[in-house]
Structures are given as C-alpha cells and as structure tokens.
Amino acid sequence: MSNNLNSYLPTPTKQRFATTFGVVRPISFWVQLALGGVSGLALFLAIFSRNFTVQPTTNPVMGFGVFLGVIGILVLCFRLYWASRYRRLNNLLQSSNRELHPRKDEVIQVLQIGLIVSFIGLLLAFLASDVTVISVLSKAIALPQGVAVYRPESTIRSLDIFVILANVNLIGAHLVGGATSLGLLNWLD
Known about the structure:
189 residues, mainly alpha, 5 helices, 80% helix, 0% strand
C-alpha cells in the first residue's frame, strides 16, 4: 500500500506539472497539425500532379522519397492521435478527485511512447528528405551547363521541390512532438 502511495507525485509538483502540461500540450498539437497539414498538402500536390504531367520517365528515387514521406505522415497521424491521450491525462491530472489522478509511471509510459513514435517519424522524415535532396542534386549535376539540349527526365521540376518541402516540414513536426515529450519527461524526473 505504501508503494502505491509513493508512486503518486507530490501535490505541488503535480499541480505545476499539470499546469505546464496544459500549456505545452495544445501548442505542440497545433504546431504538429499545421506542419503535418502543409506536408500532406505538398505531398498530395506532388503525387497527383506527377500522374498528369507528360514526362516520359519519373525518377524512382524521388518516388521512394515520396513513399517515405507518406509513411512519415501516417506516423504523424498516429502521433496526433496519441496527443489525445495527453489531453485525457491532463484532464485527469487537473481533476479535484485525487483517486482519478494517474500514477507517475502511467504518465511516464504515455510520454515515452509519444517520444518513441516521434523519433521513428523523425528518422523516416530525415531519410525521406535526404533521398529527395540527393535525387534533386543528382538531376542538377546531370544537367549540362550552358547547353539548350537536355533530357526531359533530368530536369528539376517544381514538384520535386514540393516533396523536399513536405519532408522538411515533417522533420519539424516530429521534432516538435519529440521535444514536447522529452521536455515533459525531463520535468517528471
């Protein structure tokens, strides 16, 4: 019984954590949602505009970058869903009924899962960004300087830049989610 009582945060620390949690959680959620929305829109434009252009071949490396970007968006969607757990935890922490308060290890577990998901998304977005930048760089290097005749498949299109924009915004969204979870975990320790 004593061990169960010791697993609760002391009241002043719990109240300060709940206040900080209540401020940081919505800011993090909306920043992630905005960056994810921009990424989703940019990837949407890049995916569906590619199908309607008359280019003879598309770059498979760029397609892999788009695929990783879509997976990164899906991971971000799960991360945003997981942020709803943060909202429920915040409501329980601010409850006047002490019996409803979650234990410290429950809060830590939820924050750790959010941190792990953010790191996975960050890794995917970083790989997607690297792949797309390397693809665009290889196209830029392959273009001959000062010659008007070139192969159409080696031109850099604006849609390639949209894919880079989407992946860089995904890095930012996952970084915000990871920093939020890491900061709140640090606050608990």
